[in-house]
Amino acid sequence: MKVNLIVKKCLVRGGVFLGLLQLGFLAHSMMNIFAFAALAPVYESQREYEAILTDPRLRESLNGHLLTSVSQNGETILIVAENDCVIRGLIRTIPRSRGWVGPRNFEIAVLRVDTGCENEVAVPTFSEHPSETRLRDFRNLVGRLGSFSADLKMAWVQKIEIFGADQFRISTNAEHWLDIPLSPSGS
Question: How many CB atoms lie within 10 A of CB 81?
């Protein structure tokens, strides 16, 4: 009803040509109101994995076990460490106010230990626990995900894991993967 009234007013005021021009501007402005500005998938994945790996509950739940992989399938997070230590979590989308655009807002809602993480790993006598070093290696790699975007074909990152003795494997939803040498911590 309102749209018909607007169309009639546009056509009556300045003829058909001016009316169509006004309708074009109206349509363009309406499209801008409902625009969606998401990040490219690899960058959105980077934000999500950074949130997972910096969550203080993860360090606590690992209980000294070495992290071996982090994967995500939709809202489900699966974190695996040595000795069959499995931690599950959820990434929950936080709705935006109507009319606001930008990357997805989310929170790490649940992080619970499924199995294998109960026994604490003994702390070695050298300066940093190996599990802290491994966690930092994962965080460093996630911080560089954007630089691999062309190799990952701009797809969603589904899994980051230790592959072999000295490299990471990043797998995507588009069945691409990328093997990256495990560099020393802090690099």
Answer: 25
Question: What six digits make up the tokens of 146?
Answer: 């954007």
What per-residue confidence (pLDDT) applies to 74? 86
Q: How many CB atoms lie within 10 A of CB 134?
A: 20
Sequence length of the chain is 187
- What amino acid is encoded at 118 in this protein? E
DSSP string, 57-123: HHHHHHTTPPEEEEEEETTEEEEEETTTEEEEEEEEEEPPPTT--SSPEEEEEEEEEEES--SPPPP
If you average pLDDT over residues 70-83, what whole number do you get? 90
Residue 46, classed as helix, strand or coil, is helix
pLDDT, tens only, 128-137: 678 888 899 9
Backbone phi and psi for residue 104, each to the nearest 5 degrees, phi listed first? -65, 135
- Supply 168's token pair: 């990471």
Side-chain half-sphere exposure of 171, counting CA atoms within 13 A: 13
For 161, phi then psi, to 5°, come to -145, 160
Sign of the Cα torsion 112, 135, 138, 83 reads negative
What is the pLDDT averaged over residues 102-113?
Answer: 87
Q: Which residues contact 182 (CB under 8 A, 6 or more apart)?
A: 137, 162, 166, 167, 168
